[in-house]
What does this fold into?
Amino acid sequence: MNLREIIKLANGVLLTPDVETNIQISGGYGADLMSDVLAASQPGAILLTGLTNPQVVRTAEMAEFRAIIFVRGKQPQAETLLIAAQENIPLITSPLGMFELSGRLHQAGLPSFESNVPN
It folds into this structure.
């Protein structure tokens, strides 16, 4: 699914206007624990999260996410925006909660990229 379609489905606002948005997203993953993201995600996904600190972008970069959506209308810190722009990772904010947004994206055909977190 194209990121531009995802932004529309999310009622989203692009926070990093200079980064590429004509990119394909292969799946989705929603989490607020970055340890879960690193342990159980797959590359090529979009990350849905309520966390807005710079570590979210660093984690997304390491896990090879294509973009990040901040749920519940959350706004990232200035440093988070700066790092995302440097790393060319699109940041979006959506007024929707994680549960609703996950459902919308899945119903539109975006597969879940979540897997079990090892104990």
In short: The mean pLDDT is 93. Residues 78-87 form the longest helix (10 residues). The CA atoms of residues 11 and 114 lie 23 Å apart. The helical segments are 3-9, 34-40, 54-62, 78-87, 98-107.
